[in-house]
Amino acid sequence: MGIEQRAFRLLLQRLNVASNEHYTYRSRPKAASGVGLWSDPETAVAGFAVVMQGPVCEQDQFTLETLRIYRKLMPTATLIVSTWEDTPASLLAPIRQDGVDVVLSSKPHYPGILNINMQLESAKAGISHAIAGGASWVLKTRTDQRMLAPNLPAYLVALANSFPVKGNWLQRHRIFGLGMGTLKYGLYHLTDQTVFGWADDMLQYWSPPYREDQPRADWPTDPAQRFATVPVGQLYPEAAPESYFASQYLARIGRPLDWTIADSWAAFRDHFGVADLSSTDFYWIKNQGSSFLEDDRRYHGIDNRLTLDFKEWLLLYSGALGLQAAKRAEPSLLGYFYDDVSPPGKDLQ
Protein backbone atom coordinates (compact mmCIF):
# COMPACT_ATOMS: atom_id res chain seq x y z
CA MET A 1 0.00 0.00 0.00
CA GLY A 2 1.43 3.38 -1.03
CA ILE A 3 1.70 6.47 1.14
CA GLU A 4 -1.28 8.10 -0.59
CA GLN A 5 -3.51 5.12 0.16
CA ARG A 6 -2.39 4.97 3.78
CA ALA A 7 -3.13 8.69 4.19
CA PHE A 8 -6.54 8.24 2.61
CA ARG A 9 -7.39 5.33 4.89
CA LEU A 10 -6.29 7.39 7.89
CA LEU A 11 -8.57 10.25 6.79
CA LEU A 12 -11.52 7.87 6.49
CA GLN A 13 -10.81 6.42 9.92
CA ARG A 14 -10.86 9.89 11.41
CA LEU A 15 -14.05 10.81 9.59
CA ASN A 16 -15.73 7.66 10.89
CA VAL A 17 -14.80 8.65 14.43
CA ALA A 18 -15.46 12.39 14.26
CA SER A 19 -18.51 12.65 11.99
CA ASN A 20 -22.08 11.43 12.16
CA GLU A 21 -21.66 9.22 9.09
CA HIS A 22 -19.94 5.98 8.12
CA TYR A 23 -17.51 6.21 5.21
CA THR A 24 -16.36 3.43 2.89
CA TYR A 25 -14.45 3.42 -0.38
CA ARG A 26 -13.43 1.16 -3.21
CA SER A 27 -10.84 1.30 -5.96
CA ARG A 28 -10.80 -0.18 -9.46
CA PRO A 29 -7.84 -0.78 -11.75
CA LYS A 30 -7.40 1.75 -14.54
CA ALA A 31 -5.86 -0.73 -16.96
CA ALA A 32 -6.72 -4.23 -18.10
CA SER A 33 -3.35 -5.40 -16.82
CA GLY A 34 -4.68 -4.90 -13.28
CA VAL A 35 -7.74 -7.11 -13.84
CA GLY A 36 -7.20 -10.76 -12.99
CA LEU A 37 -10.87 -11.72 -13.08
CA TRP A 38 -12.28 -14.24 -15.53
CA SER A 39 -15.65 -15.52 -16.67
CA ASP A 40 -16.67 -19.18 -16.52
CA PRO A 41 -16.33 -20.53 -20.08
CA GLU A 42 -19.58 -22.48 -19.62
CA THR A 43 -21.46 -19.16 -19.46
CA ALA A 44 -20.32 -17.89 -22.88
CA VAL A 45 -23.21 -16.47 -24.92
CA ALA A 46 -23.24 -16.93 -28.68
CA GLY A 47 -24.12 -13.87 -30.72
CA PHE A 48 -23.38 -11.32 -28.00
CA ALA A 49 -22.11 -7.89 -29.07
CA VAL A 50 -20.97 -4.88 -27.06
CA VAL A 51 -21.44 -1.51 -28.75
CA MET A 52 -19.53 1.37 -27.17
CA GLN A 53 -20.85 4.62 -28.64
CA GLY A 54 -19.59 8.17 -28.41
CA PRO A 55 -16.26 9.99 -28.62
CA VAL A 56 -13.19 8.00 -27.62
CA CYS A 57 -12.35 8.78 -23.98
CA GLU A 58 -8.65 9.60 -23.83
CA GLN A 59 -8.35 10.07 -20.06
CA ASP A 60 -6.25 7.16 -18.75
CA GLN A 61 -6.88 5.58 -22.19
CA PHE A 62 -10.26 4.74 -20.74
CA THR A 63 -12.01 3.49 -23.88
CA LEU A 64 -9.05 1.42 -25.03
CA GLU A 65 -8.47 -0.15 -21.61
CA THR A 66 -12.19 -0.85 -21.21
CA LEU A 67 -12.16 -2.78 -24.47
CA ARG A 68 -9.17 -4.76 -23.26
CA ILE A 69 -10.98 -5.56 -20.01
CA TYR A 70 -13.99 -6.74 -22.03
CA ARG A 71 -11.72 -8.93 -24.13
CA LYS A 72 -10.64 -10.61 -20.89
CA LEU A 73 -14.10 -10.91 -19.34
CA MET A 74 -16.12 -11.49 -22.54
CA PRO A 75 -13.67 -13.28 -24.83
CA THR A 76 -16.32 -14.53 -27.27
CA ALA A 77 -18.22 -11.24 -27.60
CA THR A 78 -18.02 -8.99 -30.63
CA LEU A 79 -16.66 -5.61 -29.56
CA ILE A 80 -17.68 -2.52 -31.51
CA VAL A 81 -16.81 1.16 -31.12
CA SER A 82 -19.25 3.49 -32.87
CA THR A 83 -17.84 6.99 -33.04
CA TRP A 84 -17.34 9.93 -35.39
CA GLU A 85 -15.53 10.09 -38.71
CA ASP A 86 -13.47 13.07 -37.51
CA THR A 87 -11.88 11.00 -34.70
CA PRO A 88 -8.07 11.21 -34.94
CA ALA A 89 -6.59 8.11 -36.55
CA SER A 90 -4.10 7.87 -33.70
CA LEU A 91 -6.94 7.12 -31.27
CA LEU A 92 -8.52 4.48 -33.51
CA ALA A 93 -5.35 2.62 -34.52
CA PRO A 94 -4.75 0.79 -31.20
CA ILE A 95 -8.46 -0.04 -30.97
CA ARG A 96 -8.40 -1.65 -34.40
CA GLN A 97 -5.13 -3.40 -33.60
CA ASP A 98 -6.89 -5.11 -30.70
CA GLY A 99 -9.43 -6.62 -33.09
CA VAL A 100 -12.29 -4.25 -32.27
CA ASP A 101 -14.72 -3.27 -35.03
CA VAL A 102 -14.82 0.50 -35.56
CA VAL A 103 -17.90 2.16 -37.06
CA LEU A 104 -17.55 5.78 -38.16
CA SER A 105 -20.49 8.12 -38.75
CA SER A 106 -20.92 11.72 -39.79
CA LYS A 107 -22.39 13.99 -37.16
CA PRO A 108 -26.03 15.05 -37.60
CA HIS A 109 -26.52 18.56 -38.95
CA TYR A 110 -28.40 19.43 -35.74
CA PRO A 111 -27.25 17.72 -32.52
CA GLY A 112 -30.67 18.13 -30.89
CA ILE A 113 -31.63 18.99 -27.34
CA LEU A 114 -28.92 17.63 -25.02
CA ASN A 115 -27.20 16.08 -28.08
CA ILE A 116 -30.01 13.57 -28.50
CA ASN A 117 -29.48 13.18 -32.27
CA MET A 118 -25.77 12.59 -31.79
CA GLN A 119 -26.59 9.74 -29.45
CA LEU A 120 -29.16 8.29 -31.82
CA GLU A 121 -26.78 8.36 -34.77
CA SER A 122 -23.86 6.58 -33.14
CA ALA A 123 -26.00 4.09 -31.21
CA LYS A 124 -28.05 3.07 -34.24
CA ALA A 125 -24.98 2.76 -36.45
CA GLY A 126 -23.23 0.51 -33.95
CA ILE A 127 -26.26 -1.70 -33.35
CA SER A 128 -26.89 -2.03 -37.10
CA HIS A 129 -23.28 -3.13 -37.54
CA ALA A 130 -23.70 -5.70 -34.74
CA ILE A 131 -26.82 -7.16 -36.37
CA ALA A 132 -25.12 -7.29 -39.78
CA GLY A 133 -22.37 -9.31 -38.12
CA GLY A 134 -24.83 -11.84 -36.72
CA ALA A 135 -25.46 -10.53 -33.20
CA SER A 136 -28.55 -11.78 -31.38
CA TRP A 137 -27.99 -9.77 -28.19
CA VAL A 138 -26.61 -6.23 -27.91
CA LEU A 139 -25.22 -4.37 -24.93
CA LYS A 140 -25.13 -0.68 -25.91
CA THR A 141 -22.90 1.34 -23.63
CA ARG A 142 -20.80 4.50 -23.64
CA THR A 143 -17.13 5.01 -24.35
CA ASP A 144 -16.71 6.55 -20.86
CA GLN A 145 -18.36 3.72 -18.93
CA ARG A 146 -17.27 0.19 -18.10
CA MET A 147 -18.50 -2.90 -16.28
CA LEU A 148 -16.02 -5.20 -14.56
CA ALA A 149 -18.27 -8.04 -13.44
CA PRO A 150 -17.42 -11.54 -14.74
CA ASN A 151 -20.11 -13.60 -16.49
CA LEU A 152 -21.95 -10.42 -17.49
CA PRO A 153 -23.38 -11.59 -20.86
CA ALA A 154 -24.82 -14.75 -19.30
CA TYR A 155 -26.28 -12.73 -16.41
CA LEU A 156 -28.02 -10.30 -18.76
CA VAL A 157 -29.41 -13.02 -21.01
CA ALA A 158 -30.61 -14.90 -17.93
CA LEU A 159 -32.48 -11.78 -16.82
CA ALA A 160 -34.13 -11.46 -20.23
CA ASN A 161 -35.16 -15.12 -20.26
CA SER A 162 -36.32 -15.11 -16.63
CA PHE A 163 -38.59 -12.07 -16.97
CA PRO A 164 -40.52 -12.28 -20.24
CA VAL A 165 -42.43 -9.33 -21.63
CA LYS A 166 -45.94 -9.05 -20.19
CA GLY A 167 -48.70 -8.80 -22.77
CA ASN A 168 -48.97 -9.18 -26.54
CA TRP A 169 -46.66 -6.52 -27.96
CA LEU A 170 -44.26 -6.20 -30.86
CA GLN A 171 -41.34 -6.94 -28.54
CA ARG A 172 -39.46 -10.21 -28.16
CA HIS A 173 -37.59 -9.57 -24.89
CA ARG A 174 -37.42 -6.89 -22.23
CA ILE A 175 -34.96 -4.05 -22.60
CA PHE A 176 -32.78 -3.60 -19.51
CA GLY A 177 -31.17 -0.45 -18.20
CA LEU A 178 -27.78 -0.80 -16.49
CA GLY A 179 -25.95 1.64 -14.31
CA MET A 180 -27.25 5.12 -13.57
CA GLY A 181 -30.19 7.14 -14.82
CA THR A 182 -33.27 4.92 -14.50
CA LEU A 183 -35.65 6.88 -12.27
CA LYS A 184 -38.42 5.58 -10.05
CA TYR A 185 -40.37 8.84 -10.16
CA GLY A 186 -39.43 9.82 -13.71
CA LEU A 187 -41.79 9.29 -16.62
CA TYR A 188 -40.63 6.39 -18.82
CA HIS A 189 -37.11 7.36 -17.74
CA LEU A 190 -35.10 4.24 -18.56
CA THR A 191 -31.40 5.10 -18.62
CA ASP A 192 -30.09 5.79 -22.10
CA GLN A 193 -26.45 5.24 -21.17
CA THR A 194 -26.00 1.47 -20.95
CA VAL A 195 -28.89 -0.59 -22.28
CA PHE A 196 -29.23 -4.29 -23.12
CA GLY A 197 -31.67 -6.36 -25.12
CA TRP A 198 -32.46 -8.62 -28.04
CA ALA A 199 -30.73 -7.15 -31.09
CA ASP A 200 -33.86 -6.44 -33.15
CA ASP A 201 -35.61 -4.89 -30.14
CA MET A 202 -32.57 -2.73 -29.54
CA LEU A 203 -32.50 -1.51 -33.12
CA GLN A 204 -36.16 -0.60 -32.84
CA TYR A 205 -35.51 1.19 -29.55
CA TRP A 206 -32.71 3.27 -31.05
CA SER A 207 -34.55 4.17 -34.25
CA PRO A 208 -37.00 6.95 -33.34
CA PRO A 209 -37.18 10.07 -35.51
CA TYR A 210 -34.46 12.62 -34.97
CA ARG A 211 -35.59 15.61 -32.95
CA GLU A 212 -35.44 18.81 -34.97
CA ASP A 213 -37.25 20.96 -32.40
CA GLN A 214 -35.53 23.68 -30.41
CA PRO A 215 -35.83 24.18 -26.62
CA ARG A 216 -38.95 26.05 -25.69
CA ALA A 217 -38.54 29.83 -25.92
CA ASP A 218 -40.06 30.34 -22.47
CA TRP A 219 -37.51 28.01 -20.83
CA PRO A 220 -33.96 28.94 -19.77
CA THR A 221 -31.36 28.04 -22.38
CA ASP A 222 -28.92 26.79 -19.74
CA PRO A 223 -29.78 23.16 -18.85
CA ALA A 224 -28.95 23.64 -15.16
CA GLN A 225 -31.32 26.61 -14.95
CA ARG A 226 -33.93 24.65 -16.86
CA PHE A 227 -33.77 21.82 -14.35
CA ALA A 228 -34.02 24.30 -11.47
CA THR A 229 -37.01 26.27 -12.77
CA VAL A 230 -39.15 23.93 -14.91
CA PRO A 231 -41.28 21.26 -13.17
CA VAL A 232 -40.06 17.75 -13.93
CA GLY A 233 -43.51 16.77 -15.19
CA GLN A 234 -42.98 19.18 -18.09
CA LEU A 235 -39.37 18.24 -18.71
CA TYR A 236 -39.88 14.51 -19.17
CA PRO A 237 -42.08 14.64 -22.28
CA GLU A 238 -40.29 17.59 -23.87
CA ALA A 239 -36.63 17.67 -22.86
CA ALA A 240 -35.47 14.32 -21.43
CA PRO A 241 -33.73 12.11 -24.01
CA GLU A 242 -34.33 9.02 -21.84
CA SER A 243 -38.07 9.61 -21.82
CA TYR A 244 -38.07 10.31 -25.54
CA PHE A 245 -36.35 7.04 -26.44
CA ALA A 246 -38.55 4.91 -24.18
CA SER A 247 -41.85 6.61 -25.00
CA GLN A 248 -41.18 6.51 -28.75
CA TYR A 249 -40.35 2.83 -28.50
CA LEU A 250 -43.49 2.05 -26.51
CA ALA A 251 -45.64 3.91 -29.01
CA ARG A 252 -44.09 2.06 -31.96
CA ILE A 253 -44.77 -1.35 -30.41
CA GLY A 254 -48.39 -0.37 -29.86
CA ARG A 255 -48.62 0.78 -26.25
CA PRO A 256 -50.64 3.95 -25.53
CA LEU A 257 -49.17 6.37 -22.98
CA ASP A 258 -50.80 8.80 -20.57
CA TRP A 259 -47.65 10.35 -19.01
CA THR A 260 -48.39 9.51 -15.39
CA ILE A 261 -46.20 7.77 -12.84
CA ALA A 262 -48.74 4.96 -12.68
CA ASP A 263 -48.48 4.36 -16.41
CA SER A 264 -44.71 4.70 -16.35
CA TRP A 265 -44.51 2.04 -13.63
CA ALA A 266 -46.80 -0.19 -15.69
CA ALA A 267 -44.45 0.19 -18.66
CA PHE A 268 -41.49 -0.83 -16.51
CA ARG A 269 -43.51 -3.75 -15.21
CA ASP A 270 -44.37 -4.96 -18.72
CA HIS A 271 -41.50 -3.97 -21.03
CA PHE A 272 -38.31 -2.99 -19.21
CA GLY A 273 -35.96 -4.22 -16.52
CA VAL A 274 -33.01 -3.08 -14.44
CA ALA A 275 -29.57 -4.45 -13.60
CA ASP A 276 -27.93 -2.87 -10.56
CA LEU A 277 -24.62 -1.06 -10.33
CA SER A 278 -23.34 -3.70 -7.92
CA SER A 279 -24.26 -6.74 -10.03
CA THR A 280 -22.47 -5.32 -13.08
CA ASP A 281 -19.64 -3.54 -11.21
CA PHE A 282 -20.46 -0.42 -13.15
CA TYR A 283 -18.11 2.57 -13.36
CA TRP A 284 -18.65 5.89 -15.14
CA ILE A 285 -15.49 7.97 -15.25
CA LYS A 286 -17.39 11.19 -15.97
CA ASN A 287 -19.63 10.82 -12.91
CA GLN A 288 -18.06 8.58 -10.31
CA GLY A 289 -14.65 9.83 -11.33
CA SER A 290 -15.57 13.41 -10.36
CA SER A 291 -18.09 12.93 -7.54
CA PHE A 292 -16.12 10.05 -5.93
CA LEU A 293 -19.50 8.55 -5.00
CA GLU A 294 -20.18 4.91 -5.79
CA ASP A 295 -23.83 5.70 -6.49
CA ASP A 296 -26.38 8.48 -5.98
CA ARG A 297 -27.86 7.02 -2.81
CA ARG A 298 -28.96 9.59 -0.21
CA TYR A 299 -30.21 9.12 3.33
CA HIS A 300 -31.76 12.50 4.21
CA GLY A 301 -34.96 11.50 2.46
CA ILE A 302 -36.28 10.36 -0.92
CA ASP A 303 -36.14 12.79 -3.83
CA ASN A 304 -37.66 12.65 -7.31
CA ARG A 305 -34.34 11.56 -8.84
CA LEU A 306 -34.34 8.29 -6.89
CA THR A 307 -32.85 5.44 -8.90
CA LEU A 308 -35.14 2.60 -9.84
CA ASP A 309 -32.88 -0.29 -8.91
CA PHE A 310 -33.53 -4.01 -9.29
CA LYS A 311 -35.23 -4.27 -5.92
CA GLU A 312 -37.70 -1.48 -6.72
CA TRP A 313 -38.25 -2.81 -10.23
CA LEU A 314 -38.97 -6.31 -8.89
CA LEU A 315 -41.65 -4.82 -6.64
CA LEU A 316 -43.26 -3.27 -9.71
CA TYR A 317 -42.98 -6.52 -11.66
CA SER A 318 -44.51 -8.57 -8.85
CA GLY A 319 -47.33 -6.12 -8.17
CA ALA A 320 -46.19 -5.42 -4.61
CA LEU A 321 -45.73 -1.77 -5.58
CA GLY A 322 -48.79 -0.67 -7.48
CA LEU A 323 -51.43 1.91 -8.24
CA GLN A 324 -51.90 3.30 -4.74
CA ALA A 325 -48.21 4.10 -4.33
CA ALA A 326 -48.10 5.59 -7.84
CA LYS A 327 -51.04 7.90 -7.16
CA ARG A 328 -49.38 9.05 -3.96
CA ALA A 329 -46.26 9.97 -5.95
CA GLU A 330 -47.99 11.87 -8.78
CA PRO A 331 -47.62 15.30 -7.06
CA SER A 332 -43.84 14.92 -7.30
CA LEU A 333 -44.17 15.80 -11.00
CA LEU A 334 -44.98 19.36 -9.94
CA GLY A 335 -41.59 19.79 -8.29
CA TYR A 336 -38.11 20.44 -9.66
CA PHE A 337 -35.14 18.10 -9.97
CA TYR A 338 -34.00 16.75 -6.60
CA ASP A 339 -37.09 17.95 -4.76
CA ASP A 340 -38.15 15.55 -2.02
CA VAL A 341 -41.07 13.18 -2.52
CA SER A 342 -43.54 13.36 0.35
CA PRO A 343 -43.57 10.20 2.49
CA PRO A 344 -46.81 8.25 3.03
CA GLY A 345 -49.23 9.98 5.39
CA LYS A 346 -47.49 13.35 5.39
CA ASP A 347 -50.44 15.04 3.72
CA LEU A 348 -52.61 13.78 6.60
CA GLN A 349 -50.45 15.26 9.35
Explain what the structure shows.
The protein has 349 residues and is of the alpha/beta class. It has one domain (40-348). Helix content is 38%, strand content 12%. The chain is built from 14 helices and 9 strands. It has helices spanning 3-18, 62-73, 89-97, 116-132, 152-162, 199-205, 223-229, 232-239, 241-252, 261-271, 277-280, 288-291, 310-318, 323-329, and strands spanning 48-53, 78-84, 101-105, 137-142, 145-147, 175-178, 194-198, 272-275, 282-284. The strands form 2 sheets. A 7-stranded mixed β-sheet has the order 3-2-1-4-7-6-8, sandwiched between helices. It has a two-stranded antiparallel sheet with strand order 5-9. Helix 10 (261-271) packs across helix 13 (310-318). The termini are far apart. 37% of the residues are buried.
Structure described in brief:
The chain has one domain (40-348). Helices cover 38% and strands 12% of the residues. The chain has 14 helices and nine strands.
Task: Order the strands across the largest sheet as they lie in space.
Answer: 3-2-1-4-7-6-8
Strand-residue fraction?
5-15%
Radius of gyration: 21 Å
Question: What overall geometry do the principal axes of the alpha carbons give?
Answer: globular
Task: Name its key features.
349 residues; alpha/beta; 7-stranded mixed sheet; two-stranded antiparallel sheet; 14 helices; 9 strands
Secondary-structure map:
Elements: H1 3-18, E1 48-53, H2 62-73, E2 78-84, H3 89-97, E3 101-105, H4 116-132, E4 137-142, E5 145-147, H5 152-162, E6 175-178, E7 194-198, H6 199-205, H7 223-229, H8 232-239, H9 241-252, H10 261-271, E8 272-275, H11 277-280, E9 282-284, H12 288-291, H13 310-318, H14 323-329
Parallel strand pairs: 1-2, 1-4, 2-3, 6-8
Antiparallel strand pairs: 4-7, 5-9, 6-7
Helix pairs in contact: 4-6, 8-9, 10-13
